[in-house]
Amino acid sequence: xxxxxxxxxxxxxxxxxxxxxxxxxxxxxxxxxxxxxxxxxxxxxxxxxxxxxxxxxxxxxxxxxxxxxxxxxxxxxxxxxxxxxxxxxxxxxxxxxxxxxxxxxxxxxxxxxxxxxxxxxxxxxxxxxxxxxxxxxxxxxxxxxxxxxxxxxxxxxxxxxxxxxxxxxxxxxxxxxxxxxxxxxxxxxxxxxxxxxxxxxxxxxxxxxxxxxxxxxxxxxxxxxxxxxxxxxxxxxxxxxxxxxxxxxxxxxxxxxxxxxxxxxxxxxxxxxxxxxxxxxxxxxxxxxxxxxxxxxxxxxxxxxxxxxxxxxxxxxxxxxxxxxxxxxx
Length: 330
Prior knowledge:
Blueprint: H1 19-32, H2 34-52, H3 56-63, E1 74-75, E2 90-94, E3 97-108, E4 115-120, E5 129-134, E6 140-142, E7 156-169, H4 175-211, E8 213-214, E9 217-218, H5 223-252, H6 257-282, H7 294-305, H8 311-329
Parallel strand pairs: 1-4
Antiparallel strand pairs: 2-3, 3-7, 4-5, 5-7, 6-7, 8-9
């Protein structure tokens, strides 16, 4: 379907979809299973970083299919904002070439991809650079897939680098600029995944409540169950509206749109975590069984909440951004 290259422009061999179409893809897929959406999200983030760094042709080359059925993945540590961690690897400049030493945890698609984009520091300052790494090259050691809480079909590995040769992407120490440039769009994409999980939770709960009978009538007619379903419906509708508004904010780009899209991502991910608890409860004991989708949605919602960094760090970054806007407007 071309979803793995949805974020690439047509001239680079991609589908040329805008952020609204990408969000629609992620939202609808996540209603059934958020793991494929996680794969598409990771691929889109990698491609957008490359394009932000002026390496669009490289993005097209890396993402080109090598067979009719297998696409070339590009791995990325999507559960961290490189600016908010003190454990980035170090890239040493040796005669114009860079050697990478250190460790990256939860490199998503690291066991499937040939290449990865990782952030690394080249000096003592807080800035970092992005590098392209050959995961099959010398000095690269990958762990077995890490068994995370959710998104099991979107695997991640821990990777250790010992003098691995890497390629600088864009300019040195410009990593924060590239990441902040793509962050609003990827926050909107994260909103859509959480929204899809919410909609799937409500649909599964409603369908079960309509066919499950207790006391001689479907449990959907019991007031407490009906109230839980109403709450799920409200949260799903609010999440869908947040997706639409996030796309509108990205299109209009009025002052402060970055913080508003980030706020939508934080709010909807929290709604999804709350809703999946009720989704499990509506199914009773079946809600905890893998035969049904609710227990998976419960786990996936919490993994999606960690995309692009932990919730506390995202909130701190947002309030700093708001403070800067307030100071500049005085």
